[in-house]
């Protein structure tokens, strides 16, 4: 008898099959003496569309809402039905004794497998492979410690409840809004409060009134003293008061009141979880959360040099401490050799700053695996992410940084001033982080310190002036961090939610900043206020976690969701409001004749047909990574074929052919293959689906 191993992706299935000694490859599975390994291609099965629950749901009609399935139906996805049939046949093979679930070790991975097994009518025993990396060693250890499938029943219940809740709220609210306002509108339990959060920030910026403030600086003893008022406040908001203080400071000596010296230890930042990594990669390299996740997935699945990316923990478990040296050795390549060698000379111990079993849920923090890295095989962007993870991993294993903090308090005519300096005594973990920001007032050599009670000559005081600043707009990095803090979504879903808001044209980008569109603002005016609250979906996530932990009943949760959905649809039905397209152009759709809408997509500007049933769209400008030779900003590529040209916001224009010639002259020419690949990528982005997860459902409405 053999065991059937069900992986989530073909690449992982191939790795598992190789480790298990399975070499007989077919189109749909790989077979060996004791195992048959197959894969799911992501979701093969999903919840059925409304149309499959009755004829009355084939047309979009407000009178049929809300839709409340008494018995939930599953459906096989048409695009991957061939693979599903192959997996089903394997499940029922007479020589298969049991099933080993080897999909991603998380809530959604559990759902992928369980729905396939349910749809296939499986009755055979289940086992679970739960691993955080796909190295040969991790796979062998995982198969040596398989868990019984029953231990993950609660995780499946949580995953199923999440899917059914999103169906109830999302499908019903989307149909209701679309029917009510005759427009392509969609909402969801995570995307709507996320959108509301961005709108709130826009409102704060709009209402903000800058205030001018003043301050004073005085140079003395080779240091800069800053005026301080009560409670250490250095800002003076009345100019007359600031001028009066300046008169006191003018042409005076400074009396040293107190000199304080204190040694300070600072420890390395915590290891990365996915959210922290996405935020930092956005700030440092401008990567979107989705881009960072995709790079991490490649480093995890393909290169096998980093651990599982979809984690919300920044700690390791105590049983991992014996593997730390192997992970250091595996990372000891290129620029990491020197630091790795220093670490390997001493005993590596785990401590509570980064090892804490209680702070690890499904997966530990992101760290290197025990598989040796081949830096030359990584792309430039993969190198950046790998570099961030390795340097952070090395940093937590190193000694703290030690500095001496010096504070000198002075007085001139009764006014208090203060000077600060920091003397670096021991870099410690900062040696592993080359890009670590320099601490303010950092010195390598400290001037002679003054004596308390003595007076010293000082330069003429200098008035400083500034303005209070409005809160900054969100970037994709700060947005995903804020979603995490407010409990919106999970580490596995947040990047997709942000992408969905862009594809729905509810958000747009201005450089790295995110702005809400007119469509987004109008949508928030039309959806019930309760759905816009972050507290609501955060509460749902807490309850889903409780279901996964076995401390809450999933049926009780779903009853709450049903009651909420009924109230939500009633609110939409009884609401007053209108929706209008204020981005309508005078250009007509070549397919249906209706006027086209001008939209700013995530990657450029498009013309889109207002009729979802038509679906026509045309990219008119694509934002590229090509830099303007005048102002160095990113340029747009407009036009088609030989008429394509780059345009910059500063006014610079350049034909694509001229751009290539200029690059060749500069010695930075792209090969024909690279140019072709780049243009194909741009075209692929232009042809990508323009709306969210309800695109197929929305396409059935007749407006």
How is this fold's topology laid out?
Layout: E1 2-7, H1 10-19, E2 24-25, E3 29-31, E4 35-39, E5 45-47, E6 74-76, H2 81-91, E7 96-102, H3 107-120, E8 126-128, H4 136-144, E9 147-148, H5 153-181, H6 191-207, E10 212-220, E11 223-228, H7 239-249, E12 253-266, H8 274-285, H9 289-301, H10 324-331, H11 337-344, H12 380-397, E13 401-412, E14 415-426, E15 442-443, E16 455-457, E17 462-467, H13 476-485, H14 494-503, E18 507-510, E19 513-516, H15 518-526, H16 534-549, H17 554-574, E20 584-588, E21 595-601, E22 604-609, E23 617-627, E24 634-638, E25 645-647, E26 653-655, H18 656-666, H19 672-686, H20 695-698
Helix pairs in contact: 2-3, 3-5, 5-16, 5-17, 8-9, 8-13, 9-12, 10-11
Overview of the molecule:
The strands form five sheets. Strands 10, 11, 12, 13, 14, 15, 16 and 17 form an eight-stranded mixed beta sheet that branches. The protein is globular. 36% of the residues lie in helices and 21% in strands. It has 20 helices and 26 strands. It has 703 residues and is of the alpha+beta class. The two termini are 57 Å apart. α3 packs across α5, α8 runs antiparallel to α13 and α10 runs antiparallel to α11. The protein has five domains: 144 residues, 3-Layer(aba) Sandwich (Rossmann fold); 147 residues, Topoisomerase I, domain 2 (Orthogonal Bundle), CATH 1.10.460; 124 residues, Topoisomerase I, domain 3, CATH 2.70.20.10; 124 residues, Topoisomerase I, domain 4 (Orthogonal Bundle), CATH 1.10.290.10; 115 residues, no CATH class. It catalyses: ATP-independent breakage of single-stranded DNA, followed by passage and rejoining. It is an enzyme of class 5 (isomerase). Its EC number is 5.6.2.1.
